[in-house]
Design goal:
By secondary structure, the chain is an alpha/beta fold. Helices cover 33% and strands 12% of the residues. The chain has helices at 104-108, 116-124, 147-150, 152-163, 180-188, 203-209, 216-228, 249-259, 275-283, 288-301, 320-336, 354-361; strands at 52-55, 63-64, 74-76, 79-80, 109-112, 134-136, 167-171, 192-198, 233-240, 263-268. The strands form 2 sheets. The protein has a 7-stranded mixed β-sheet with strand order 2-3-6-7-8-9-10. The chain has a 3-stranded mixed β-sheet with strand order 1-5-4. Helix 8 links the parallel strand 9 and strand 10 (263-268). It is globular, with a radius of gyration of 21 Å. The chain starts with 51 loop residues before the first strand and ends with a helix. Mean pLDDT is 89; it is low at 1-9 and 357-363.
Length: 363
């Protein structure tokens, strides 16, 4: 064993991947490193890193939180890991709890929860359940590519529709368009808000930074299709990477507004746990000068560190540059006619589905 990081680029071809290595998580006692044995290898001899999916059957599907930084107290993530492969993803460290790498494992070893809709219905029907909007996609994307196969998100939406339960969704996946037939009726009843994340309009940068996510143009089309169906959309300019994408804020907001987004928000790049080394390794590909600029600006916004996990600071930063971003965002959203916030989701329509009422009547 070795104490250095392991690079899967020596053992696998990484087409369409964001991370460049498979550094082990912080809970693992050892790391493995591929070593050149001196024998020449052609690219054709190196296998392509392919996505694997494992099944999880948790006892509960609703996760609770009490963080003052976020506007919800419960969430669902139907998948662990995310094939979109966004190199900046703050959720990468969660794979370490599975004994997997927050690097390439996070992108290629996905965990699906196919029984999530059944668990959700069970928890909603519990006598002690207290109603409040459920947030979906707060950690990993519920509309990542494997959703086309498992359809967990669609089945959960069917449960929420039947119970007339309010929900917020965060995604950058085009598969959400498949479910407009469910989302549009829920939107008419004030039961759903959708957030679409948009990081850059630079197609080449997007391909390097979030290689398996829809292109910027495609995400704008998603916003257009949802708003055409009268599903309220918030554009999430996130993450803002100072020195790399921050100059695009106004053009991103303008493009999303033209596509129909009604509200907007922004979040600064977050580098918790293992995300820092993974991001720095990727950033080196832009050259020393650019990498130094980005990291120096992050330190200026986080009190000398590349990331400050304190509440109230981790998502916005502090200091001159953070204040400048806040001001630019405020001025741009007002000029473009964004609403300050979406109307609150309705909580007065919640009820047990009719099919359950008929079953209870037979008891």
């Amino acid at each position: 064993m070795t104490e250095s990081g392991t690079s899967s680029s020596k053992t696998h071809r990484l087409r369409g991947r964001g991370a460049l290595s498979n550094r082990v998580g912080r809970f693992e006692p050892y790391e493995r490193e591929a070593v050149d044995d001196g024998w020449p290898r052609e690219d054709a001899d190196v296998p392509l890193l392919r996505t694997e999916v494992a099944i999880e059957r948790p006892r509960r599907i609703l996760s609770r939180n009490s963080s003052p930084d976020i506007p919800f107290d419960r969430s669902i993530n139907p998948y662990r890991g995310c094939e979109h492969a966004c190199v900046y993803c703050f959720a990468r460290p969660s794979h370490a709890f599975l004994g997997l790498s927050p690097g390439l494992d996070f992108e290629a070893r996905i965990v699906a929860k196919p029984e999530a809709p059944e668990y959700l219905a069970r928890e909603l029907g519990a006598k002690r359940y207290v109603l409040a909007p459920i947030a979906i996609g707060t950690n990993t994307d519920p509309y990542q590519p494997v959703e086309a196969r498992f359809r967990i998100m669609r089945s959960m939406l069917e449960v929420l529709r039947d119970w007339r339960h309010p929900v917020t969704i965060v995604t950058k996946g085009s598969l959400i368009e498949r479910d407009i037939d469910i989302l549009a009726p829920m939107a008419r009843e004030g039961l759903v808000h959708v957030g679409i994340s948009l990081t850059t309009l630079d197609k080449a940068l997007s391909r390097r930074m979030e290689p398996r996510a829809p292109s910027p143009e495609r995400r704008l089309a998603i916003i257009q299709h949802l708003t055409d169906a009268r599903v309220p959309v918030r554009v999430m300019v996130a993450p803002i990477i100072p020195g790399l994408t921050d100059h695009e804020m106004e053009t991103l907001l303008a493009a999303a507004r033209e596509a129909g987004a009604e509200t907007a928000s922004w979040i600064l790049l977050r580098l918790p746990g293992e995300v820092g080394p993974i991001f720095r390794e990727w950033l080196d590909g832009f050259g020393e000068a650019r990498a130094r600029k980005v990291l120096a600006r992050l330190r200026e916004m986080h009190g000398g560190r590349e990331y400050d996990s304190d509440w109230g600071k981790r998502m916005r930063g502090q200091g001159v540059h953070a204040d400048l971003i806040r001001s630019r965002f405020r001025i741009a959203t007002r000029r473009l006619g964004y609403a300050e916030d979406a109307p609150p989701l309705r909580t007065d329509l919640f009820r047990r589905p009719e099919r359950d009422e008929r079953q209870l009547a037979l008891l």
